[in-house]
């Protein structure tokens, strides 16, 4: 955790989207921008798990990590705030997204603020955040931001930008995440 007020807050987004372009990436980017706008001195990075697919598989099956995967895992473990975004697949998070989190050190996540986000084809999948993602991050002992953001296809406007209602939810969640991260840094 950042403990000095003059240090940048390290925000790492983990994008579980596998498509290109990715609505999940658009959502995580919007959340990261809002956190950066809500807190001074924010440094950001996004990890696209699709770029690590073969590395995640080899680390999981054969125990062979790669330098790129190891560096990505360390970035998450060192972050002051994690934005975790995934598309909904069959009522839960993407398998590749879960594979990445299976490799993260649970001790490093204890007490770390995490902002949850998910995308799906319709609003009927929005409870996935509460039924699948919150328990995953509770296992880690993470400090989950109260407002999570779910976005369906209809929530995006032209060119993948958040529509007005989604933008309002992103703004609320980003502000909460920034305040929670700053508070966590003060008590660390």
From TrEMBL:
Residues 10-152 form the NADPH-dependent FMN reductase-like domain. Gene3D superfamilies: 3.40.50.360. InterPro entries: CE1759_FMN_reduct, Flavoprotein-like_sf, FMN_Rdtase-like_dom, NAD(P)H-dep_FMN_reductase. Keywords: Flavoprotein, FMN, Oxidoreductase. It comes from the Bacteria. The keyword S-adenosyl-L-methionine does not apply. Pfam families: FMN_red (PF03358). One of its GO terms (molecular function) is oxidoreductase activity. The keyword Oxidoreductase applies. NCBIfam families: LLM_duo_CE1759 (TIGR04037). PANTHER family: FMN REDUCTASE (NADPH). This is FMN reductase. It comes from Ruania alba.
């Amino acid at each position: 955790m950042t403990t000095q007020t003059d240090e940048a807050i390290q925000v790492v987004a983990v994008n579980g989207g596998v498509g290109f372009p990715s609505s999940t990436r658009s959502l995580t980017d919007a959340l990261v921008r809002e956190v950066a706008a809500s807190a001074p001195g924010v440094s950001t990075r996004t990890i696209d798990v699709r770029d690590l697919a073969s590395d995640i598989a080899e680390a999981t099956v054969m125990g062979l990590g790669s330098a790129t995967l190891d560096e990505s895992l360390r970035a998450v473990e060192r972050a002051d705030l994690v934005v975790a975004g995934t598309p909904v697949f069959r009522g839960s998070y993407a398998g590749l997204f879960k594979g990445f989190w299976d490799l993260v050190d649970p001790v490093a996540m204890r007490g770390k603020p995490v902002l949850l986000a998910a995308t799906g084809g319709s609003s009927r999948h929005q409870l996935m955040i509460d039924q699948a993602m919150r328990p995953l991050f509770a296992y880690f002992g993470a400090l989950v931001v109260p407002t999570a953001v779910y976005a369906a296809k209809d929530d995006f406007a032209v060119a993948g930008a958040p529509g007005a209602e989604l933008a309002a939810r992103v703004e609320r969640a980003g502000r909460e995440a920034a305040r929670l991260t700053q508070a966590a840094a003060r008590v660390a």
